[in-house]
Amino acid sequence: MKSMILKDIYNITHNMRSLGLLLVMFVFIMLPQGGAPGYITTSCVLCSMMVITTFSFDNMSKWEKYALVMPVTKQDLVAAKFIVLLIFTAFGAVSGLVLGIIGGLILGSFHPADPTEWLTTAAVAGAGICAGIFFGSIVIPLLFRFGAEKARILSIVAFLIPVVLGLLVFKLLSMGGVVITDKLAFTGLCIAPFLVVIWTFLMFWISCKVFVKQEI
């Protein structure tokens, strides 16, 4: 398991320069508009999508055929991808926090003397990790079923559906007179990790079912 995880991390280092440049560019694009919270969330989701690139490398090298010769199961291969997703998303949260705070200090939108800013930023980082894992776990079953190239297109649809549904629910709540208070938002942040864990296990189960039925 450890070797499979390290394999993906080593492979993705080839794209780290372009990813780092992209994250720095987003600092100057997003921070003036939405501040650090929007940038941190974007960083988490963007880094979580690196898992798609690992599937591209695997498909090109016929990795699955080689891996299954070794004493590993298809469930091990699926589990390794979900662990890699968690690592990539955590990296996105850390890099988003560091670059977001530095960019906020430069632009004057982050005030380190205010404790609430630190608490808010930490909460947003947690929410960003949840968002990255949520969206990334949607893509992994598609990647196992259709391969990296087809799944890239389907992943866009997979992202849009929950976003549109979320906006629709928010709109319906607003029309019904329901106000999203700070207390309600805090409750949502507390519940989100548990929901994401359940969702991730569901996507893991689906991925195993899909991959086990495939002929390698």
How would the global form be characterised?
A: globular
What is the typical, i.e. mean, pLDDT? Answer: 82
> What is the CA–CA distance across the termini?
19 Å
Number of helices: 7
Low-pLDDT runs of 5+ residues are none
Write down the domain tally: 1
Helix content: over 70%
**Overall SS class:** mainly alpha
Q: What letter string, H or E per element, gives the SSE order?
A: HHHHHHH
Main sheet: strands, sense, barrel: none
Can you walk me through this structure?
By secondary structure, the protein is an all-alpha fold. It has one domain (2-213). The chain contains seven helices and no strands. Helix 1 (2-12) crosses helix 5 (74-107) and helix 5 (74-107) packs across helix 6 (115-175). The longest helix has 61 residues, at 115-175. It is globular and about 55 Å long.
Descriptive terms for the model:
216 residues, single chain, mainly alpha, transmembrane helix, globular, 87% helix
Would you summarize the structure shown here?
This protein has about 220 residues and is mainly α. The protein has seven helices and no strands. This is ABC-2 transporter permease.
Q: Which secondary structure elements does this structure contain, and how are they paired or packed?
A:
Blueprint: H1 2-12, H2 16-48, H3 50-61, H4 63-67, H5 74-107, H6 115-175, H7 182-213
Helix pairs in contact: 1-3, 1-5, 2-5, 2-6, 3-6, 5-6, 5-7, 6-7
